[in-house]
Amino acid sequence: MKNKGMIRWILAGVCFLCANWINAEQELKLWYEQPANKWVEALPIGNGGFGGMVYGGTNRERIQFNDDTLFTGEPHDYAHEGAVKYLPELRRLLFEGKQGEAHKLGNREFMSVNTRGGNHQEAYQPFGTVELFFPGHEDYSDYYRELDLRDAIATTRYKVGDVKYTREVLASHPDEAIVMRIKAEKKGELSFNAGLSCQHKNAKIEAKGDMVVLSGQVDRGKTRFEARLKVKIDGGKLVAGDDGLTVSNADSATLILVGASSFVNFRDISGDPSKICEERMSGASAKEYGKLREAHVADYQELFQRCRLDLGVTDKAKLPTDKRLKSFGPDDPQMATLFFQYGRYLLIACSRPGSQPANLQGLWNKSKYPPWESKYTININTEMNYWPAELSGLSECHVPLFDALKDLSVSGRNVAKEHYGARGWVLHHNFDLWRGAAPINNANHGIWVTGGAWLCQHLWWGYVFNGDKDFLKNEAYPIMKEASIFFLDYLIEDPKGNEGYLISGPSNSPERGGLVMGPTMDHQIIRTLLRNTAEAASILGVDKKLQKQWIETADRIAPNQIGSQGQLKEWFYKEAPNTTHRHVSHLWGLHPGLEIDPRKTPELAEACKVTLKFRGDGGTGWSKAWKINFWARLLDGDHAYKLLKEALRGNTYPNLFDACPPFQIDGNFGATSGVVEMLIQSNGKEIEILPALPSAFKSGKVSGLRARGGFECDIEWKDGKLVSATLDSLLGNDCTVLYKGKSLKPEMKKGETVQIGEEDFEDI
Ligand code: FUC
After folding, report:
1. pLDDT number for residue 764
2. Ligand 1: does its nearest atom lie under 6 Å from the Cβ of 664?
3. Gyration radius of the chain's alpha carbons
4. 616 within 8 A of 647, measured Cβ to Cβ
5. Is residue 658 lining ligand 1, measured as CB closer than 6 Å?
6. Fewer Cβ close by (within 10 Å): the C or N end of the chain?
7. Ligand 1, residues 511, 668, 669: which to mutate, most atoms within 8 A of Cβ?
8. pLDDT value of residue 8
9. Distance 378 CA to ligand 1 centre (A)
10. Which residues contact 525 (CB under 8 A, 6 or more apart)?
11. 28-74 tens-digit pLDDT
């Protein structure tokens, strides 16, 4: 082990980058030989809150665009006043085995109240579409389109006759606009019509001067919106008319699209979208395309380039992306790299400070009635969206989730009071733009109390990976504290005399088995929350009494149990292991939790394996993605890889969007984190290198992976064996590094780097 100075590290880094990444990175593109016909063939771009789907058509080009604040409905508190009156009865019925009656009572007295009737939450909405028509471009040749993950630019190229046309589209975060550059290779050969369309009934569209303006109000909602499309041309002529803007005989054109809504925050929609559009447009249109592009690329690359992966490249990379999917396997390792990096690309595109968190479809939605309202389902989906954030160097992309949690800790406070007569705040299995926190849909799965507690794990990670005490004190801890206080009031002692265990309920094991007392997942999540919060308080030196209460309570929560078939029991009071159900909630303690670990709790880890064998390797896209992570945590890289293969072959659309089906973005993010779990695992004390390396990833290198405790790690391996690893201490914390059953304890101060080879490890 060599303790190297910064210079050596930089030199090594430079050589590493130059010599090794080039091949793999050249291929970091999704590319196709035909325009997109369907939405799931179009290519997504986004600047966090504003994004689009680029079809790459020739005579008709479309960019279907979204703003993440367009939801149906209006600010609203969904809490069901007085629901708490029925809580003791719900518990009594469940303890007496009268689940049917409990469901009825729950549905009648305990569910959300929506302004528009019913107990549902509101739906994410489409905004509009940029419609471009290029007369005469029906016949074309040499067609090519791509999305380059290295610079986040979608390009379409083709020829009409002997004139080559190129379009580049990007969604700029610094300039808050979608920008398209269209070029004809010959002067004066660019003629097209540009307009906007919108599905909302009262939308008005007008073209004037060099601009098309779309304004209106969301159907079934109160939020107002406006979008503006400006066309700047070089040469030729531009005329505004009833059907938009018509450009004739130009050499090139730059199109700038901005959009905004009246959403200010979850309780206020009095914003002025026209004013915001005006400001955004005057800023973006004052710049030349080259400058806009440069600023976009620099801003994007600052995030994207932090983490690199090279698993090797084969000839398969010469095939268009859609043709590689169905036969994905070990002969196409670069496809795994592409899919890994696509997850990072998507997170940067749909979750930036100031934006809404990534919803079920990230940011991209074409339908007024999207599946599950394209809101935030938090009994797995939203959390999965954020699994890769810290692991792959995208802490900033985590921020919108933290911001939403701040809101939810406000809306969830009234739910804690009205439904449970408890202090603190609570969140059930979904939220929407209005931060609905009460149970929705049906008591049999909607009454589930650990949504907020699970999300608090992300706040904790926000601290654990980065060590920022101000963040812990001002952002994370206040929310974690109130979530933890809720559970002090909520948990009840087991009435059946099982050692005074504390039990969660009424709740459920997500979407399986109905309303119950004592789902295992709840117990794991609450235990983790209370312990993390106690640790946070101890780091901050506050709330001594509460720390003690939290730890004592965590210790009393009903423990994990092994069932009659050797499986991990899904509920404290019952078992039903023989199912292939997509949710595997009770393995939360294995992943994303840390309480089950084959190195420390081998019996429980074995029980997880039995459960996973019952569940099988099928399921929705997100279910397979979760199983990648489970098998990696069980240190079985080949099984994890099998799930990655099944996800790519069976649950991925041509544009590499995850297919639940239908499209749901969680599976993309879950696969990205799953690949990290194969290469590095950390728990704040130990970091294991290559813990679950699949044989299909024979040789490779990765840089910029992040570990709990504040470490950055680069690893190179060959023929399945470690060549060298570099560990960079960001915070100066202690850690033990593990590799193949051996360990080493590098002494590192903050800012120091060590290089490690296999020979440095010693038997444990
Ligand atoms: C949960 C899952 C479904 C879907 C939905 C958004 O209800 O069980 O498969 O992912 O969330």
Report:
1. 87
2. yes
3. 26
4. no
5. no
6. C
7. 511
8. 39
9. 9
10. 450, 453, 454, 457, 588, 593
11. 999 999 999 999 999 999 999 999 999 999 999 999 999 999 999 99
DSSP letters spanning 547-593: HHHHHHHHHHBPPP-B-TTSSBPSBSS--------S--GGGGGTTTS
660 pocket-lining for ligand 1 (C-beta < 6 Å): yes
Ligand 1 centroid from CA 166, angstroms: 40
* Cβ–ligand 1 contact at 626 (below 6 Å): no
Distance 157 CA to ligand 1 centre (A): 38
Residues 317-363 have pLDDT tens digits of 999 999 999 889 999 999 999 999 999 999 999 999 999 999 999 99
Q: What is the mean pLDDT of residues 699-721?
A: 98
Token readout for 542 is 């506050």
Average pLDDT over residues 362-384: 98
Average pLDDT estimate for 573-581: 95
How far is it, in rounded angstroms, from Cα 564 to Cα 421? 37
Helix (H, G, I), strand (E, B) or coil at 642: helix
The number of CA neighbours under 13 Å toward the Cβ of 141 is 4
Mutate which of 365, 448, 622 to test ligand 1's pocket (most atoms within 8 Å of Cβ)? 622
Q: Is the CB of 511 under 6 A from ligand 1?
A: yes
Q: What are the start-end ranges of the E strands in 373-423?
A: 376-377
Residues 374, 413, 520, 690, Cα dihedral to 10°: 60
Q: Tell which one of 365, 375, 377 to mutate to probe ligand 1, the residue whose CB is within 8 A of the most ligand atoms.
A: 377
What is the whole-number distance in angstroms between the Cα of residue 512 and the centre of ligand 1? 12
Interval 225-284: pLDDT, tens? 999 999 999 999 999 999 999 999 999 999 999 999 999 999 999 999 999 999 999 999
- 528 vs 108, 282, 455, 556, CA distance in Å? 32, 49, 11, 13
Task: Give dist(CA 657, CA 643) in Å, integer.
Answer: 16
Looking at residue 18, what is its pLDDT?
45
Q: Is residue 6 scored above 50 in pLDDT?
A: no
Tokens 């509920």 belong to 571
Ligand 1 centroid–CA 384 distance in Å is 12
Ligand 1 binding pocket mutation candidate from 383, 444, 660, 665 (most atoms within 8 A of CB): 660
Q: Does the structure show a pLDDT above 80 at 159? A: yes
CA distance 546 to 457: 19
Contact 261, 224 (CB under 8 A): yes
Shortest CA distance to 108 belongs to which of 598, 515, 541, 463? 515
Give distance in angstroms: CA of 381 to centre of ligand 1: 7
β-strand partners of 743: 738, 762
Angle at 681 between CA 657 and CA 508, to 5 degrees: 65
Mean pLDDT of the chain: 96
- With a 6 A CB cut-off, is 381 part of the ligand 1 pocket? yes
Euclidean distance between CA atoms 414 and 422, whole angstroms: 9
Residue 24 pLDDT: 59
pLDDT in tens, 393-436: 999 999 999 999 999 999 999 999 999 999 999 999 999 999 99
Distance 541 CA to ligand 1 centre (A): 40
Give distance in angstroms: CA of 618 to centre of ligand 1.
15
CA 40 to ligand 1 centroid distance, Å: 19
Any ligand 1 atom below 6 A from CB of 383: no
State the pLDDT at residue 4. Answer: 52
As a whole number of angstroms, the distance between CA 528 and CA 521 comes to: 11
- Ligand 1 pocket test: which of 380, 384, 623 has the largest number of ligand atoms within 8 Å of its C-beta? 380
Q: Confidence band (pLDDT; 50, 70, 90) for 17? A: very low
Helical H segments across 305-380, by residue range: 321-325, 333-350
* pLDDT value of position 497: 80
pLDDT band at 755 (very low <50, low <70, confident <90, very high): very high
